[in-house]
Amino acid sequence: MGEALAFDASFIQPIEHRPKLEHVDPIDEVPTIDLSISDSRSVEQLVSDIASACENWGFFQVINHGVPMELLARMEKVAKLFFDQGIEEKRKVKRDAANAMGYHDGENTKNVRDWKEVFDFLVRDRTLVPASHEPDGTSLRVLTNQWPQYPPEFRETCEEYAKELELLAYKLLGLICLSLGLPIADRLKGYFQDEQMSMVRLNRYPPCSSPDLVLGVGRHKDAGALTILAQDGVGGLQVRRKSDGEWIPVKPISNAYIVNIGDIVQVWSNDKYESVEHRVVVNTEKERFSIPFFFFPAHHTMVKPLEEVVNEQNPPKYREYNFGKFFASRNRSDFQKQKVENVQIDHFRLPV
């Protein structure tokens, strides 16, 4: 698939989920937040901006985030060099049901194939995760990174990038803690310090002659705590606006990262913040690259509303669930179509 994907029926979206191609400038946009602190901008103002963005959108862009742009440029360069290779070379590091790290070009979202190819790697190599082929996810397996021989600087660049994004993820998590009124910014850090499952993905979306029928990634919500995305200037990410359900494009901003709330933060916040659906539309002329960092806790993490945010007036809305088993169940649909939609956090919602 180095040059183009062979179009077939497995890519075609159901009619109700096909993208509308007419361009409409949205009245409002996903907010952009400056993470720097200055005499004119206090921590309290920053935390307030984060709270507003999380409540109203579930998405925001950040600038002055501290990640060296020279490093992101190197990541984009090695991603393109890797994906520009022939399919035989890329498949030397192809992932499979036994090891979900590496190259893949047949991922499904909502049981429809995505118009993309990907390369995945773990932030912490040799990570314990529940076995996705086990219905209850009880047995554990070790995931390991697979690194291609070309380009030669690929592994070093990826590992350096992962460390920088992990620092940014902790910073954002701390701000979200404060925005929820938690006593300290480090309240949630412990869930990620022991055997975290965080990973980075390189996405390539080839040009597509039928952008009205397919999606680069179908509509979905993210299972983790946070996702931090670098997208190139081509654009294509769309967010389902909470106020009216319309699909709103997230405009590429130079040197910015896109951040979205995942299912875990929705549960931790007891629905104060919501994990919002998003998708990727494709381009007829240009290939698009993006690099998401998925901030996942350890496989043994039990997720439930935080005790600081629940009370008699705001009782817990979710029963506790194990993140590793949840994630393993979600990932089974990557390789084969399922008869039913994969597990969602609504399945753990308590009756009112």
From TrEMBL:
InterPro entries: DIOX_N, IPNS-like_FE2OG_OXY, IPNS-like_sf, Oxoglu/Fe-dep_dioxygenase_dom. Coiled coil: none annotated. Keywords: Iron, Metal-binding, Oxidoreductase. It holds the Pfam family DIOX_N. PROSITE patterns: FE2OG_OXY. One of its GO terms (molecular function) is dioxygenase activity. Residues 196-297 form the Fe2OG dioxygenase domain. Belongs to the iron/ascorbate-dependent oxidoreductase family. This is Flavonol synthase/flavanone 3-hydroxylase-like.
